[in-house]
Write a structure and sequence with these properties.
It is built from nine helices and 14 strands. It is an alpha/beta fold. A hairpin with a 5-residue loop joins strand 9 and strand 10. Bound molecules: NADP nicotinamide-adenine-dinucleotide phosphate. NADP nicotinamide-adenine-dinucleotide phosphate binds next to helix 1.
């Protein structure tokens, strides 16, 4: 049994806790909030053994094997470093941290302490994503030529909420643009050239971001994220001999359509629970095998991804203190 602890008891923590219940080899050992009452109520709702009114107390709990960090972006670095310092394995929500320097220090810390560390980028572990990778690997659409992906919804424009608040590491790029960017990285690797433009909100973060990537052998990616309107939130992958359509929302899709030689086939590929089950499964399998990083969402992948986010941020003028 792998004993999980969760810190930051907001929206995503609840969804993760729901899927933990489905895994036969996972238990929710402890949860921690900045408020003891909230932690007690979350523990009662999701069946955690222990609750704490501070993250530090959970890090000291010898019964916790791995900590899931579900706090806002601006505190991922500090939370990860403290959990690792306390000797815990860590899985941390996306974006892993605010910039490449922070991610490098987190990875170095995990390596020096011989602890497992993984970015919780659930898209990588969704069965439909795995199927897309398998099909491309088998040459089902020939050579991948282009990726187009978007993610957009009209977000509540609360200047203090984590989406628009610069102090919490807000902005569409880091919150949802990371998914199209990650898909392009997963399928095409690191681009040779990056172009990006954004609409900036008065709070100083991007409310809309458009990214164009070019690769050395002519491949391209066109990516979009926005808090201003609903967009299809789909991904279209064109290959030299066909194409793959990842149905909305593409970053946790449950159906893909494959086009080849004029034939279109739709494959239904359901995930377990709310979809977080699969990243949980990866953590458990890695820990059982004594691995300190996931091969599917490796340290290098996280480093490359934050490098791309940094490059886009620099182009659109989004700087965090
Ligand atoms: N994988 C996904 O599908 C997915 C979806 C949504 C979000 N996310 C990621 O998950 C993280 C959390 O997102 P969320 O939507 O769950 O946010 P949320 O509902 O606002 O919850 C975040 C929690 O972090 C804690 N926290 C610590 N410092 C805070 C601060 N200064 N201000 C506000 N809260 C603070 C709070 O918990 P306590 O009060 O209990 O301490 C809060 O409830 C983000 O990094 C986001 O990118 C991932």
């Amino acid at each position: 049994m792998t004993r999980f602890g969760i810190i930051g008891l907001g929206k995503i923590a609840g969804r993760f806790a729901d899927d933990l219940k489905l895994h036969p080899e996972a238990s929710l050992q402890a949860v921690a909030s900045r408020t003891a009452k909230k932690a007690r109520s979350f523990a009662a709702q999701y069946g955690a053994t222990t609750s704490y009114g501070s993250y530090e107390a959970l890090f000291k709990d010898a019964q916790v094997d791995v900590v899931y960090i579900a706090t806002p972006n601006h505190v991922h670095y500090q939370n990860c470093m403290e959990a690792l310092d306390a000797g815990k394995h860590v899985i941390c929500e996306k974006p892993f941290a605010l910039d490449a320097a922070q991610v490098r220090k987190m990875i170095n810390k995990a390596k020096s302490k011989k602890l497992f560390l993984m970015e919780a980028l659930w898209t990588r572990f969704i069965p439909a994503t795995e199927k897309v990778l398998e099909l491309i690997d088998q040459g089902a659409i020939g050579k991948t030529v282009s990726v187009r992906a978007d993610f957009g919804f009209p977000a509540s424009q609360d200047p203090n909420g984590r989406l628009f608040n610069k102090n919490l590491g807000g902005g569409s790029l880091l919150d949802i643009g990371i998914y199209p960017l990650y898909l392009s990285y997963l399928l095409l690797g690191r681009p040779e050239a990056i172009d990006a433009e954004a609409t900036m909100h008065y709070t100083g973060v991007d409310s809309h971001c458009h990214i164009e990537l070019a690769y050395s052998d002519g491949q391209t990616a066109i990516l979009e994220s926005t808090f201003l309107e609903t967009t299809p939130t789909e991904a279209i992958i064109e290959g030299s001999e066909g194409g793959i359509y990842m149905h909305p929302r593409f970053h946790h899709c449950q159906a893909i359509s494959v086009e080849k030689d004029g034939n279109l086939e739709t494959l239904e590929i359901p995930y377990t629970g709310l979809g977080y089950y699969h990243e949980i499964d990866e953590v458990i399998n890695c820990l059982k095998a004594g691995k300190l990083e996931s091969e599917k969402m490796s340290h290098q992948h996280s480093q490359d991804l934050i490098g791309l986010l940094d490059a886009v941020r620099s182009l659109i003028g989004l700087r965090f203190d």
